Amino acid sequence: MLKGCKWFCVSSMLYLVLLVIAASVVSAQTPLKSVNSPEGGRIIYGVVDGAAGQAAAMASVLRAVHSNCGERPQVGQVFQFRGTDTVGVFFTVVNHPAGNVKVAGLVMAAMNPSQRVEAALVSDNATRFGNTVNAMLKELFREWHPGSAVAATPSTPKATSTVPAAASGHSAPAAKLRMVTATDNSASIGIPDGWTLDPRSAGGTMLVTGPQGEQIGLSMTRMAIDPTNPNQRRLPHVPGTIVYPFRGDLVKSYPDLFQAWRRANGKPPAQLQVDTIKPMPAPQGNHCILANGHMDPDGKGMQTFSDYMCAFDPGNYGAYIVTLSHMLVSNTLAEQEHNTLTAIIDSWKVNQEVINQQTAAASQQMAANTQALIQQSQQYVNHIHQIGADATARMNAAQQAHDMQNQAFEQHEDAISRNGQAFSNYLLDQTVVQDNNMYNNGTIGHGTLWNSTADALVKADPNRFEIVQTPNFWKGIDY
To answer: Is residue 25 part of a domain?
Structure first.
């Protein structure tokens, strides 16, 4: 919906310049008419002399915008106003002569009964256009009736209105509305007596229901994940997330994406009959459609629906955002309540200041969550490192204990061997004698002799020979 457009942004004062722009489009003998809008902005309309058709008329206006502003305007997709032969296109442009002021506008063209082309231009400062365009269109269509089809539908000038047109113009007058506000003060909307505001309305989203089952949900938003993206596995599948491949062509994918939206809400598929669907103007990176038709949401019979759905291009991990404005009303009430439904939707206003505050708070929270996740990840890594260090320390300690145990065991075994050999020598009447004369290889000899022989050697040369005590036995020689 126009009130939800976010691409109209920047600053100030281009109204007189746009008046000059529009005046340059038509010849001098065909003066343009100017209409003042109560909410601001500039409205200009008139016959475009020499234009061969609607496309030529709009191109002439846009060329004049280019010439006067010093740059080519950026335009969206051309669309047709519902129930009319009027076509239009949104544009943005920076007016360099006026101090690089950014302006947003809408150019429209239609054939009048005399087969001359009339064009209209509504424009405002880009920072305000999203909030003033609906009011400007209402003022324009009160006075501008270039063709009978346009004149027959003055109550539906809204280019992106999601209310289906009345089939025969027998819609009752719009009911008196009372304003209600979301609990977070982010948006307000007018509803008739007997209608209720869903307490879940917040963040600019408004959900209202009528006494006979009428439903209107404006600017509902859900996160979506493209399961075909190879990086999507790195994203958590939070409950309520839409899982559907992003293809960019909502005209083709709307029916399946709408069913995926229902699945994310925990609802079964609905019988869906799309009567008309067309792309709508959207900023770069966003894709929008307007769909009308009939559906059976609960197995109780077909009802009239109108959806305005947008999908943003996904990021690197396959995540993207889907917004939906949805209206559902029984077939018998669709025509009768057309004007009332239109009035309800037109009354919807978003408190941009609150939305900006909520966005800033959400961004701060996201940054804090990211930092906390980084800290948790670092703590986890440090914990892993500590586990590894502890394991290494335990392994080293165990190895040291094992070595000490082996050493003690070997010493114990050696002592047993020494004592065992000494006892054996005693039983065999033998003695270990050491020869203190060093051999050529630098060693001192040991030998086991009979006790009498050992005593004789030591007595004969006590400086050279000596009795070896058990602790001094040489392993591998004496035992």
So the answer is: yes
Q: How confident is the model at residue 148 (pLDDT cuts 50, 70, 90)?
A: very low
* 184 or 127, which is more confident: 184
Considering the domain architecture, whether residues 271 and 223 belong to the same structural domain is answered as: yes
Range of the domain at 427: 409-472
3-state secondary structure string, the chain? CHHHCCCCCCCCCCHHHHHHHHHCCCCCCCCCEEEECCCCCEEEEEECCCCCCHHHHHHHHHHHHHHHHCCCCEECCCEECCCCCCEEEEEEEEECCCCCEEEEEEEEEEECCCCCEEEEEEEEEHHHHHHHHHHHHHHHHHHCCCCHHHHCCCCCCCCCCCCCCCCCCCCCCCCCCEEEECCCCCEEEEECCCCEECCCCECCEEEEECCCCCEEEEEEEEEEECCCCCCHHHCCCCCCCEECCCCCCHHHHHHHHHHHHHHHCCCCCCEEEEEEEEEECCCCCEEEEEEEEEEECCCCCCEEEEEEEEEECCCCCCEEEEEEEEEEEEHHHHCCCHHHHHHHHHHCEECHHHHHHHHHHHHHHHHHHHHHHHHHHHHHHHHHHHHHHHHHHHHHHHHHHHHHHHHHHHHHHHHHHHHHHHHHHHHHCEEEEEEEEECCCCCEEEEEEEHHHHHHHHHHCCCCEEECCHHHCCCCCCC
Regarding whether 289 and 169 lie in a shared domain, the answer is yes
pLDDT of residue 200: 92
**Residue 28, domain member (yes or no):** yes
Q: In this predicted model, what pLDDT tens digit does every residue of 245-280 receive, in sequence order? A: 998 899 999 999 999 999 999 999 999 999 999 888
Count the domains in the chain. Answer: 3
Q: Summarize pLDDT for 192-236 with one digit per residue, the tens.
A: 999 999 999 998 899 999 999 999 999 898 988 888 888 766 556
